[in-house]
Amino acid sequence: MKRLKMTRLMMLALVLTPLTSMAASPLAFNFSCASIGGVNSDGKGNVWIDGAKATVKTVNENFWEAKSGKNTVSISRKDDGNPDVSWTGPDRKHGICLPEDNIDFSPTKASPQTGPSFSCSAVEKGSMEEIVCQNPSLSAMDLKLNGMYKQALVKSKNDPMLKAEQRGWIKGRNECWKEQDKPACISREYTQRMTELQNKWHVK
Q1: 3-class SS at 77?
Q2: How confident is the model at residue 18, as a pLDDT?
Q3: Across-strand partners of 85?
Q4: Is 32 helix (H, G, I), strand (E, B) or coil?
Q5: What's the rounded Cα separation, in Å, for the pair 126 and 45?
Q6: What is the dihedral angle through the alpha carbons of 91, 94, 100, 106, rounded to the nearest 10 degrees?
């Protein structure tokens, strides 16, 4: 009889284990939430509210609550796969959070992206962005750098200095128009920036 009970318990554990391991985490995102500051998720279950590590509660596979101090952030996964974030604070204050990154998790874009991280339809003719769009190798480097930069943003708690550095890097990359071999110059700029982010923020 005891052996039968033990067998049933083991079978129940085997059934429940995959279910718990499948509990999804909020997607990686960087949102701005008015008076409570930025809300950042690393996509691995960690959420920061205005730079402070929050306590995350999983309500279901598409809804989470993150709390830090007197602020609560509600995170949900919309039907198109993108995150929806709102906040509530003391004195019944509340509001909607706005994304700081142009990241789209829609199923239609779930397939591997072949272009760069930005839209090639809006680039200026003769610009360094156009060269990136026309070169598969540079496009791949742009995607990789963009991913590393997003990781660094999360690790830095949305550090304004990091954002300023990235804007400065873009200006530096665009200076490659002065070089005779522009693609080679752009490639060097991407490689250098990725190395900087790896060394400073330990991103991959």
Answers
A1: strand
A2: 40
A3: 75
A4: strand
A5: 42
A6: 150
Select from 119, 107, 185, 123 the least CA-distant residue to 146. 119
127 Cβ partners below 8 Å, 6+ apart? 174, 177
CA distance 166 to 173: 10
Q: Which residue has the tokens 């190395």?
A: 195
pTM of the model: 0.48
Report the alpha-carbon distance of residue 28 to residue 76 in Å, rounded.
12
Q: Tell me the backbone φ, ψ of residue 108, rounded to 5 degrees.
A: -65, -20
Please write the tens of the pLDDT for every residue from 151-173. 999 989 889 999 999 999 999 99
Domain ranges of the chain: 22-99, 112-201
Tokens of 161: 């200095």
Q: What six digits make up the tokens of 8?
A: 């049933």
| 83 within 8 A of 27, measured Cβ to Cβ | yes
**Region of residue 92 (left: phi > 0; alpha: psi -120 to 50; beta: else):** left
DSSP letter at 175? Answer: G
Query: What residues pair up with 67 in beta bridges, in sequence order?
Result: 55, 72
Pairing assessment for the beta strands 52-53 and 55-60 based on DSSP bridges: unpaired
pLDDT tens digits along 10-58: 554 444 444 333 457 888 888 888 778 888 888 888 999 888 899 999 9
